[in-house]
Inverse folding.
């Protein structure tokens, strides 16, 4: 690992950039501002290297960002209805930052923190965020460690470890926006997708789950075999119309603490393949519906609608208010853990 200055924040604080290059020359860049992934440069079928993740050229870009490009988000990835939940008989009110709901940890979530860097190796960087009791309304002082490892198999392994000094809820995720053409001026509509899920959680207004768990069979949400993302994205199907495309939690078939493949994306022209492995119960597939060209990223490129996709491994949205969903409660005697890996390769 090598590191250098990424620039300074308005208050003069230095932000760092970490560079992990593996034996093949493939490279990942990270910053401790929001523990974000800044770039992932991997080869296509012909051996040309290209950057497959959206991001910003400097800390100012990340400070101004409202689409969560590449950040670790939390304490709660995705939405909590009305930002309200109860735990042990007490009602907690979180910050409201998405209509009348709480999204991705609120305005001052993990993505707004300058993380410490307690450890690193040749191929990894560990970052730590300490979120005080009451941060964005959440109970308990939480310490979250995220370790990024970039190995010689072009796998970016993200290990999370979290503790709290009081009962709380915790559900962080990595919010990367991928475009496997390595040119975000293209849309992702020709990318092919596979999701290892027989069921998904439909949502109602404000993208809050209705609480039902429905079969994907016979719907545009069936990605159990490879399908082009653009094939059915504008189908007259209420769930797609409500979210202006895909923006849904898929219920992964295998959830047993072990790590399983959850999803895979393939870009047929360049041949890049990305597989996502996780131990989480759900994956949010978001097709970049709300990117609208107003956000400029690396190289000054305006990120247009559907120019990238997110595959966020996590617990289901609004779980604290949906007792039938797997629990996100963390007790002081427990340790929160998550491992999610993004593996890059090519199909011939
Ligand atoms: C959510 C979207 C949201 C996007 C950017 C995704 O995880 O599911 O609804 O627009 O993040 O905030």
């Amino acid at each position: 690992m090598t590191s250098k200055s990424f620039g300074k924040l308005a208050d003069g604080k230095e932000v760092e950039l970490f560079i992990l290059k593996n034996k093949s020359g493939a490279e990942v860049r990270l910053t401790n501002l929001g523990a974000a992934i800044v770039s992932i440069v991997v080869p296509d079928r012909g051996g040309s290297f290209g950057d497959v993740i959206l991001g910003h050229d400097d800390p100012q870009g990340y400070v101004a960002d409202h689409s969560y490009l590449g950040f670790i988000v939390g304490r709660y990835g995705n939405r909590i209805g009305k930002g309200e939940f109860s735990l042990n008989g007490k009602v907690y009110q979180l910050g409201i930052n998405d209509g009348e709901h709480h999204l991705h940890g609120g305005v001052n979530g993990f993505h707004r923190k300058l993380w410490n860097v307690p450890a690193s190796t040749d191929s990894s960087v560990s970052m730590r965020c300490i979120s005080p009791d009451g941060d964005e309304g959440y109970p308990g002082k939480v310490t979250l460690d995220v370790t990024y490892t970039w190995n010689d198999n072009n796998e970016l392994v993200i290990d999370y470890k979290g503790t709290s000094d009081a009962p709380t809820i915790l559900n962080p995720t990595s919010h990367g926006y991928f475009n496997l053409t390595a040119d975000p001026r293209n849309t992702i509509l020709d990318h092919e997708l596979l999701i290892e899920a027989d069921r998904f959680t439909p949502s109602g207004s404000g993208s809050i789950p209705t609480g039902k768990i429905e079969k994907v069979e016979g719907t545009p949400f069936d990605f159990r075999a490879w399908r082009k993302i653009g094939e059915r994205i504008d189908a007259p199907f209420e769930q797609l119309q409500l979210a202006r495309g895909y923006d849904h939690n898929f219920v992964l078939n295998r959830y047993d603490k072990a790590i399983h493949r959850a999803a895979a994306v393939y870009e047929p022209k360049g041949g890049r393949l990305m597989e996502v492995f996780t131990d989480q119960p759900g994956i949010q597939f978001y097709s970049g519906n709300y990117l609208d060209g107003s956000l400029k990223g690396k190289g000054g490129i305006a990120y247009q609608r559907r120019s990238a996709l997110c595959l966020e491994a996590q617990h289901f949205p609004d779980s604290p208010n949906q007792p039938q969903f797997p629990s996100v409660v963390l007790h002081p005697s427990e340790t929160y853990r998550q491992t999610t890996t993004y593996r890059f390769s090519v199909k011939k």
